[in-house]
Design goal:
The chain is mainly α. It has one domain. Helix 1 packs across helix 13, helix 5 packs antiparallel against helix 6 and helix 5 crosses helix 10. The chain is globular. The two termini are 19 Å apart. The C terminus is likely disordered.
Length: 285
């Protein structure tokens, strides 16, 4: 039970991304194309500072999967945060949660793994949900933001696959090093802009880094010692459910009907996907 509570607590903290990014202070960053890269950059800086003391440098070994992890994580980070600054929080988080289905496609076409029929059915349901959000959401919001959210999902899928390939390495060290490389890769995206935050913006980005990322990662890593990957995947579905609710409660941004429909379909697809995994099948984590 303590493991389940830890995973749920991690999902609860992860769900606060919209709460932080949709704050008036961070939404005031201008021009709009500056906000996402800048928030992603400084979140990475804070996380790197917090996690680097725990790196076991001698335990790290070079693998090509590290390179794919660095680029996938950087792609996910900048696209997710930029999408969150431009589009509805609910749309963005649900589109990012299509990652397990991109993993299915990567595993099928690149790693040549067999794809269960149940997983294909779940993928079809998820794509209907994606079409609902993008088709209806683009009429009331930012189409570029929705597209970036989808790309963030692809990047997240790459992160999942890369971490699977790196499962024999120390996870804390790998994530800390990834944060450091992510900061370096994000630097070109803030060229030409003032790279500094102002006043309360530092507190909001610091809170995003600590509360929404670093702390829940440590809690989740501990929880996985007591909970299987498949059960953890189900429990973490609390994140996309709560994310738009936080934004509604704190910033009074209503949840759109297309978000409820499309997000609901993606959520159903994820439940089908995870509950359909056989005992010997590794679910995404």
């Amino acid at each position: 039970m303590s493991g389940r509570v830890a995973v749920l607590l991690a999902a609860l903290l992860w769900s606060t991304s919209g709460l932080f990014i949709k704050s008036p202070e961070l939404m005031a960053l201008a021009p709009a194309e500056r906000a996402g890269p800048l928030i992603a950059l400084w979140r990475g800086v804070f996380c790197a500072i917090l996690l680097l003391p725990f790196v076991r440098w001698r335990a790290l070994r070079f693998q090509w999967a590290l390179i794919s992890l660095f680029f996938s994580f950087s792609l996910m980070s900048i696209c997710f945060i930029t999408a969150m600054t431009r589009s509805d929080a609910g749309d963005v988080i649900f589109l990012q949660y299509t990652a397990p289905f991109w993993v299915l496609l990567i595993n099928h076409f690149w790693l040549r793994e067999a794809t269960p029929k149940r997983a294909i059915a779940a993928l079809a349901v998820a794509m209907v949900g994606v079409a609902t959000i993008v088709g209806l959401g683009s009429g009331v919001g930012d189409l570029l933001g929705l597209c970036l959210a989808l790309v963030a999902g692809v990047g997240y899928g790459g992160v999942i696959v890369s971490l699977r390939l790196l499962r024999d390495q120390d996870s804390m060290s790998v994530i800390a090093l990834t944060q450091l490389v992510c900061v370096i890769l994000l630097l070109p995206f803030v060229q030409g802009f003032d790279p500094w935050l102002q006043g309360a913006q530092w507190a909001w980005v610091g809170g995003l880094a600590v509360v929404q990322y670093a702390v829940p990662y440590v809690i989740f890593a501990w929880g996985l010692k007591h909970v299987g990957a498949q059960e953890a995947s189900i429990l973490t579905l609390l994140e996309p459910v709560l994310n738009p609710i936080w934004v509604l409660l704190i910033w009074s941004q209503a949840i759109a009907s297309h978000t409820l429909i499309g997000g609901g379909l993606i959520l159903v697809a994820l439940i089908i996907r995870y509950t359909g995994a056989s005992a010997g099948e590794e679910a995404p984590s």
